[in-house]
Amino acid sequence: MLPPDQIQLSQDSGSQTIIIKRCPLCDSPQASPYAAFPEFTWVSCDCGLIYKRSARIGTDSNDIYDSKYFRSGDSKHAHDYDKRTGRRIRKSRKQILDALNHTEPGPLLDIGCSLGYTLRAARDLGLECVGTDLAPYAVEACRKQGLKAEMGDLEHMPFKEGVFRVAVMKHVLEHTPNPRSALREAHRVLQPGGALFIAVPHAEYGKVQRNPTKSRFYRPDCTGGNEHFVYYTPATLGRLLEQTGYRVGKVHPHLLRKRASRMERIADVVLAPFNLVGGLAKNALKLRKEFWLVAVRT
What we know:
The protein has a single domain (62-297), classed as 3-Layer(aba) Sandwich (Rossmann fold), CATH 3.40.50.150. It is built from ten helices and 14 strands. It has helices spanning 67-71, 85-100, 117-124, 136-144, 179-189, 206-210, 223-227, 234-243, 262-271, 278-285, and strands at 7-12, 15-20, 32-36, 41-44, 50-52, 54-58, 108-111, 129-133, 149-151, 164-170, 190-201, 230-231, 246-253, 290-297.
């Protein structure tokens, strides 16, 4: 967790209250309210990072990350991870290949492996691979598919130093109040020159910025508000990666065409000829709910 000068913990009856006293990126104690609710308040730091100032969470990950989280359509935490399996695997395959453009092929670690889509894609590509997850349900689901998976959290993974050539963190980093520690742990298990693939929600997504208190990113009755601690932009995540021993190699919007809005698809076509122009490319990126990047361990 964060050091005592950055975080305050109090615990009672199976839950704990976390208060983040300093920005996880720049360490500033100053921040402006961004989206306030009775349950918690999101704040915005001058450095550009948006994070949850305080939150009350369960001490047992099984309280949230159970079978309903992955499969049920009734839970407010539900993600329906089991739908569109083939598409998820194909998408993961493309992302792994993109990471391999920045490093040599080698063992792959999927951090927050969920139900094993990235692991299945890696296996299909002939890569040695293993996943880690907080949720016993996810680990068991992977093992039932013949995939290697271990229990472990972002800050303490059960692997030796320098074991992996590629590490994948897809929609994981926003779940921790201590992203520096998570990235340093990934750095520890990666080989020098290894590639880290990260996908996260985009803090500057246009619809979210216009009215954050109504956004699923922040509302307490939605997954984002309940489970997430930090929201990033390419700039803030890039700075965090540089602080923890990485060099950013590529940033890209989320290319999920079938689920993009009509305006997003039109913008893709209109802006495609200009995607190397800084200002236009940046604005196009904001049309996406998420972005991903590849960083190289130095």
